[in-house]
Design goal:
This protein has 445 residues and is mostly beta strands. The chain has helices spanning 17-26, 300-315, and strands at 40-46, 49-55, 65-72, 87-92, 98-102, 107-111, 117-121, 123-124, 130-131, 136-139, 145-149, 154-158, 164-168, 181-182, 189-194, 212-217, 223-228, 238-242, 247-251, 258-262, 268-272, 277-281, 287-291, 335-340, 346-350, 355-356, 381-382, 386-390, 396-401, 406-412, 415-421, 427-435, 442-443. The longest helix has 16 residues, at 300-315.
């Protein structure tokens, strides 16, 4: 039977706020990085930079709870207005309406704040208002919805009633990305893309990280500003596999990498995952968020499985390739990603201890065809999804732990949206309540 909207389905994410309050009552060395102390944020001025450092214990189980308010989905896939195959685009309107791009179909649909289906916008194709893929969707300040389709290299603006408005082809590229279209309060929106590189005589650009930027657009399709993302001081560890016909480059599993997020107020947050340090620029003054974080080791079994998975992926293309790159680190990066939310809070995905996936929940390995490449190695390990949430002023707000088999799409204030898959890998769009909604503990500079 279709499962359209299921209100008030509780999802338990362990709540240890009482632990934090009890720790706060006990006091302690406020200037120490002792992880047994109460969680707290302290702001200081270092030159022209505001440094906000958070110290103290954050329970692994989290300090806040997610309670499911509703979910939208269809187990049987019979109702096309509420069934999903794979969500890779999400946008949040000021009134709580959400737009979701589903790669199956593909379709672009909207749902109101209560999870009720509103409409399907556009359709598959290459004509006006049509699409095949999505590099991202976002709402503009005036309520219109923008979709960037890489298959046509076109941005389409849809009016508030879902009809097709204007279209244009941006001068930057970004094939087969996701979440590369971002709302900005001072502009129509921003596009995240690599910066075109011009080389002598048309030679290919050198290997290594490609410089990227957020290109800020007005509603006519003109670029009015560019926020270049600084390259990290150290290059991320990579593996290169090549022969006379082709070359592949991949990141080393568990190696730290560079991350960025554009806040809706126009500030740019960047981090390199080795250290728990986030730099924020383009505001009234620079800010640096620091966190005293516990090192999370990788186990021998995690490293072995990650290496075998990487080798099996490459060997499907280059059968004789053997690992000859850097070793997989024995510690995980402090930061795995940065995600900017519509209320200008910053959600930081942090590393967590790995856990063995029960055999009945693992993917079923596909047999290798006769004479073909070896089958992909099945992933045997996973990490719980832990987010540290920071206020716009850099103060720590919460540790939020997502339910298993779920992925965050967006958040604002006391609610969040995500995707949850059931035991049959059927995805559902969900809305969660974040509790408690208390102000963060802080100390004045």
């Amino acid at each position: 039977m279709p499962a359209a909207i299921q209100p008030n389905v509780p999802t338990r994410v362990a709540l240890l706020a009482a632990f934090v309050l009890a720790a706060a009552a006990c006091g302690g060395d406020t200037n120490s990085d002792d992880e047994s102390a109460a969680i707290r944020s302290i702001s200081t001025n270092v030159g022209d930079t505001l440094v906000v450092r958070t110290t103290g214990a954050v329970p692994d189980a989290g300090t806040h709870t997610l309670t499911e308010l509703w979910r939208v989905g269809d187990v049987d896939g019979a109702d096309s207005t509420i069934s999903f195959g794979g969500i890779n685009g999400f946008a949040l309107h000021a009134d709580g309406t959400v737009a979701v791009f589903d790669v199956t179909g593909p379709t672009l649909r909207t749902y109101d704040a209560q999870g009720q289906y509103v409409r399907t916008i556009g359709r598959k194709g290459a004509g006006p208002g049509e699409y095949s893929q999505s590099n991202g969707v976002t709402y503009l300040n005036d309520g219109r919805l923008a979709l960037w389709d890489p298959s046509t290299a076109r941005v389409t603006l849809y009016n508030t009633d879902g009809s097709v408005g204007s279209e244009w082809k941006p001068p930057v590229t970004g094939m087969w990305m996701s979440d590369a279209l971002h709302p900005v309060s001072t502009h129509a929106f921003a596009i995240l893309s690599t910066i075109p590189q011009v080389t002598p005589d048309g030679e290919p650009p050198p290997r290594g990280p490609r410089p990227s930027a957020y290109f800020l657009y007005d509603s006519t399709g003109s670029i009015t500003d560019t926020l270049r993302i600084p390259l990290p001081a150290e290059e991320p560890a990579t593996i290169t596999a090549e022969n006379e016909n082709m070359s592949m480059m991949m990141s080393v599993p568990f190696a730290p990498s560079a991350h960025s997020a554009l806040l809706p107020d126009g500030r740019l947050a960047t981090a390199f995952g080795r250290e728990y340090v986030i730099r924020i620029a383009n505001g009234e003054r620079p800010m640096r968020i620091e966190r005293a974080a516990t090192t999370v080791p990788t186990t021998d079994a995690e490293r072995t499985n990650a290496r075998e998975r990487t080798e099996s992926q490459v060997q499907r293309v280059l059968p004789n390739w053997q690992w000859d790159g850097p070793s997989i680190p024995d510690v995980k990066p402090a930061i795995r990603s940065l995600e900017a939310m519509s209320d200008n809070r910053l959600w930081v995905l942090v590393s967590a201890p790995g856990e063995l996936i029960p055999e009945n929940e693992r993917d079923t390995p596909r047999p290798a065809p006769p004479g073909g490449p070896p089958p992909l190695k099945v992933n045997e390990w996973r990490e719980p999804t832990w987010y540290d949430v920071f206020e716009p002023n850099g103060e720590f707000f919460a540790r939020v732990v997502l339910p298993s088999r779920s992925r965050l799409l967006g958040a604002r204030g006391d609610v969040a949206w995500g995707v949850v898959t059931d035991e049959d890998d059927v995805p559902f769009l969900v809305k969660w309540q974040i509790t408690p909604a208390a102000a963060p503990a802080t100390d004045a500079p």
